[in-house]
Design brief:
This protein is mainly α and 188 residues long. It contains 8 helices and no strands. The protein is elongated and about 65 Å long. The two termini are 40 Å apart.
Length: 188
Amino acid sequence: MFSLLKAIDRGIDRSSHILLVVCIFTMLFFSVLTIFLRWFGQSLEFVEPFVRHLVLLSAFLGGVLATGRGTHIGIDVLGKILESIHQHFLCSQLKRLISLASFAVVCWLVVASIHFVKMEMEFGRETFFGLSTGMLVLIIPFGFTLIAYRFFYLFIASFGPDADLILGASPAPAIPGAHLGDSKGAQL
């Protein structure tokens, strides 16, 4: 089961990374194209709302990647205190609790965003290429669902064979002095 969840997580990570790069280059292309066309008094009406929705998608994809890598925004005062007094077991339990609570909160956000999409489908307007705003805001539950899965995976995997990697338990440093963060130990 762990290997299946890990494969899904890796697939989400890879596809999010690729899609984020495509979004960024697409935004860059259309933004430069808009500037270029303005020199000649021309414009493409779909570009600005299209780029805005790509920005929204990029923000969610960045959140998906940050969640999987554990680099998302977090206030972890208690975790740092537990690490500093070498309470690694309590710190790992705290990380599990945070992953589970984050999963629950993001699941609630998925449900709320689905309600938002339903309202947009009912009352939304047409934007570009015949797409309604309801179709475009599907980005929100899509992004929250991917983030929720990443938190779910972090919680489940913290009990599996890769628990040390997930929980951030680091083995003893191979290079003397490397754990102190000094540049001498890191350069050896």
